[in-house]
Amino acid sequence: MGFLSTHTKEKLRRTISPRKGSIISTCNDVPKGHFPVYVGEMHRRFVVPICYLNHPLFQELLHLAEQEFGYNHPMGGLTIPCNEDYFLTLTSQLSSAPTALSF
Fold this sequence. Notes:
Elements: H1 6-16, H2 23-26, E1 34-39, E2 44-49, H3 56-69, E3 78-80, H4 84-96
């Protein structure tokens, strides 16, 4: 598995850093090596592996999130501005192709 660039790490750190009273700071159900994201109009919560951050398609979603929300996400965690069907399709492809994750 590859390493995250310094820019990607900093972007993620600023994006999902727990804030007092945020959902992330009160939930302990995220396993080590994973992080929560909120997707779609209903802000459905998903917990995804950190290794997805190395994949260019997931990095595109991070870029979209940055463009739409900046670093102030309404749910207190990373909000992905795409529909749930697209997100589920993407994560399904990422999880079924582990070799594609080693950049």
